[in-house]
């Protein structure tokens, strides 16, 4: 059976709708999200170290997932430093990228 990426994304669209995403949806963090319909869950989001005592500086659109992985969106121009700070702080050693095969699908379903 062949399942398209589009079909998988449609199916995943329903997963986790009941889990809170308040931090990612807050006004101060919205400009840090590449896709407004894909937000990190509050209970397992990656928290960056707070910079200069500003509470909102701990946000990046990224979640810890089982087996010691982090899922995140490609950085925006205004989040490149946050992305590399996350890589450094979390001691990330491998960064796979599935950007091109996923981007068009999200735009179609978002």
TrEMBL record:
GO molecular function: non-membrane spanning protein tyrosine phosphatase activity
Entry keyword set: Hydrolase, Protein phosphatase
Coiled-coil ranges (or none): none
Pfam families: Y_phosphatase (PF00102)
Gene3D superfamilies to which the protein is assigned, alphabetical: Protein tyrosine phosphatase superfamily
Signal peptide coordinates: none
GO cellular component, one term: nucleus
Keyword field contains Isomerase: no
Listed EC numbers: 3.1.3.48
Domain Tyrosine-protein phosphatase: 6-95
Listed name of the protein: protein-tyrosine-phosphatase
Organism of origin: Amphilophus citrinellus
Lineage of the organism: Eukaryota, Metazoa, Chordata, Craniata, Vertebrata
